[in-house]
Amino acid sequence: MPTFDVSSELDMQEVRNAVDQAAREITSRYDFKGTDTEITLGEGAITLQSSSEDRLAAGRQVLEEKLVRRKVSLKGVTYSPVADAAGGTVRQEAALAAGISADKARELNKFIKNLGIKGVSSQTQGGQLRVSGKKRDTLQEVIASLKEADFAIPLQFGNFRD
Fold first, then answer.
1. From CA 86, how far away is CA 9, in angstroms rounded?
2. Strands 45-50 and 38-41
3. Distance between CA atoms of 123 and 103, rounded to whole angstroms?
4. pLDDT (tens digit, 9 = 90+) per residue, 95-124?
5. Confidence label for 65 from pLDDT (cuts 50, 70 and 90)
6. Cα distances (Å, whole numbers) of residue 26 to 15, 16, 40, 139
7. Whole-prediction pTM value?
8. How confident is the model at residue 16 (pLDDT cuts 50, 70, 90)?
9. Pairing assessment for the beta strands 38-41 and 77-79 based on DSSP bridges
10. Which residues, at least 6 apart from 50, have a Cβ–Cβ distance to it below 8 Å?
């Protein structure tokens, strides 16, 4: 019985490269001189810090440009509200998505069932979803339907087996 897996992951090497490029650009740009704007990559999150909210927003824009250029989906980045930090600065965290949450997995399962394609079933396995069907063509229909729909997370399709 053919199967494939649906997962939601970010390429952390590309994220690291984008953060490094954004940090390098911020240190060299004239409009960021003296604003103490920093972008750092932590464990599962990116931290942006600056002296004012408008410089923070400009830093976020630089980061997003670098992520897009490196083909990292912005759906996998969730920003927290801007918070005051020490020394009159502001800080913002950008959480990086890893895996499919239980709520999203239920939403994806329901979407696949509502497609009404005969012989297709799906089940949650940890941070991913396994979809199985009787025919390869029906699974390709499911992949096409999932790509068209917007679930607010980046989806990857892999481990396709006959």
1. 33
2. antiparallel
3. 13
4. 888 788 888 888 888 888 888 888 888 888
5. very high
6. 16, 15, 12, 45
7. 0.78
8. very high
9. unpaired
10. 35, 36, 37, 38, 56, 59, 89, 90
